[in-house]
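Would you kindly consider the sequence and fold I have copied below?
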Amino acid sequence: MTETNKKAIASWSGGKDSCLACYKAVRQGYNIKFLLNFISRGSGRGCFHGLEGRLLKFQADLIGIPLIQREVSPDMGRYEEEFKAAVTELKKPDIETMVFGDIYLLEHESWIERVCRDIGIAPLEPLWENHPENIVEEFIRSGFKAIIVSCKADTLGQEFLGRTLDQGLIEEFKKRSICPCGEKGEFHTLVVDGPMFRKPIRIVKAEAILKEGFWKHWFLDIQEYR
């Protein structure tokens, strides 16, 4: 990655949207100094995708950008305070931008705009208002590979866990009227290979688990990887 004078932090979940947004920012000339990932307090797992923190560290090591993980609470009021504190801690005088992978959820984009304004950092949304199908196709065309690691049980079955996000899967989603990017939480992914990686992640052992919560969802508990 070429060093430039445009330095940034990238919001990181380990999934396709944050990865493609980061990649596009790099291609726009940004030097990504940190990947920032939030862990649910006491769980050791990512807030939004439920991936184990150690797996995300391993992923970031293969990409070659330092991953900073901070614990946050489920309470939205406290989460905002903790988000601001984490970004402020990393925001150096020469880091003026933070990269996000939002696509079309206006309420989240509005929250990002407001919070970033409060702490004095400019949000960069490389995927914003691009058509979801175009985004996934760009992700695949760029050489990235991602697998499904969770999905809503009332939308997609257990058999979708571990499947590679490819053109065939996109066609299945379209037939089911599911957003190809899963922007409303229909599914989440883990990126396991691509042009930013020095080698692929190989999943050695994983188990499908049905989790109860705000909604039932299938989750791929990745227990061993190389």
Observations:
- The radius of gyration is 17 Å.
- Strands lie at 6-11, 30-40, 67-72, 95-99, 122-124, 145-152, 187-193, 203-211, 217-225.
- The domain at 133-225 is CATH 3.90.1490.10 (putative n-type atp pyrophosphatase, domain 2).
